[in-house]
Amino acid sequence: MIKAIFFDLDDTLLWDQRSVKEAFSATCQVAAEKYPVDPEKLEASVREEARKLYASYETYPFTQMIGINPFEGLWGNFLDDHDQFRKMKDIVPGYRKESWKRGLAQLGIDDDDFATLLAERFPEERRKKPFVYEDSFTILDELKGKYKLLLLTNGSPDLQQTKLTITPELVPYFDEIVISGAFGRGKPDPSIFEHAVSLLGVQKDEVLMVGDNLMTDILGASRAGIKSVWINRTNKNRNEVVPDYEMKELSDLFNILDSLNVKETK
């Protein structure tokens, strides 16, 4: 019998990819008002340069373990009590400016001051654009009180709490919130799943993990011996990681829960 459900945050309940896309669009439009650039080409060049730069820093292995992507580095402050986060806090101001400076340079623009302006504008735009999937609240309303609910998210505690602060309606649904940067290991490490199980006082076979990422949410659940549901809204191709269940919309979770609970009662 399923008694607890773990939910991933980014691109499972929060539509983080859309928030990042719209922040880029708004910031690149500012650039297009000053220079004759195609906003989409500038976005692509900044994304490319940000990825390369991000991977060059000494903090990169840590960000990979905790689960912090390059675009979170473009707006997060990382005000966390950990040596690696303190290093990130020192790195990100230069990283942001350099990403935009190099992105502009790809399009033939050399303007240090303007790169700084865009680097500061992007975090402002990202904070103004917290998107939640339409079905997130519907399913959480149905599940609250019937199951123990836990939010299991990779990232910096400071940044993930910022996301929850700008979408405060989500927090009351959850009995516990586990953030990888606070725990010390990120998904797919099984230890963070085991920690989450212990917090709720349930058994592994009483838990269902719901997430969008095969390589973190689904792989980690599998390693921990927890059933998993892959939310695949955009018809992504499956890799070698095989979820127990797959769904296109969060509302499909009800049928999965019904089938699981029927099996348990037979």
Biggest sheet: strand arrangement = 3-2-1-4-5-6
What structural category arises from helix and sheet content?
Answer: alpha/beta
Give the total of domains: 2
Radius of gyration: 20 Å
**Under the CATH scheme, which architecture of the largest domain would be assigned?**
3-Layer(aba) Sandwich
What is the average of the pLDDT values? 96
Q: Helix and strand succession?
A: EHHHHHHHEHEHHEHEEH
What percentage of amino acids are in beta strands? 5-15%
Q: What summary fits the major beta sheet?
A: 6 strands, parallel
CATH topology of the largest domain: Rossmann fold
Task: Count all strands and give the number.
Answer: 6
Distance between the termini: 11 Å
Question: What would your notes on this structure say?
Answer:
- The chain has 266 residues and is of the alpha/beta class.
- The chain folds into two domains: 4-15 and 132-265, HAD superfamily/HAD-like (Rossmann fold, 3-Layer(aba) Sandwich); 16-127, no CATH class.
- The protein is 54% helix and 10% strand.
- The chain is built from twelve helices and six strands.
- The protein has helices at 16-34, 39-56, 60-66, 70-73, 83-106, 112-127, 136-143, 157-165, 180-183, 190-200, 214-224, 253-265; strands spanning 4-7, 148-153, 176-179, 207-211, 227-231, 245-247.
- Strands 3-2-1-4-5-6 form a six-stranded parallel beta sheet.
- α1 crosses α2, α1 (16-34) packs antiparallel against α6 (112-127) and α10 packs across α11 (214-224).
- 41% of the residues are buried.
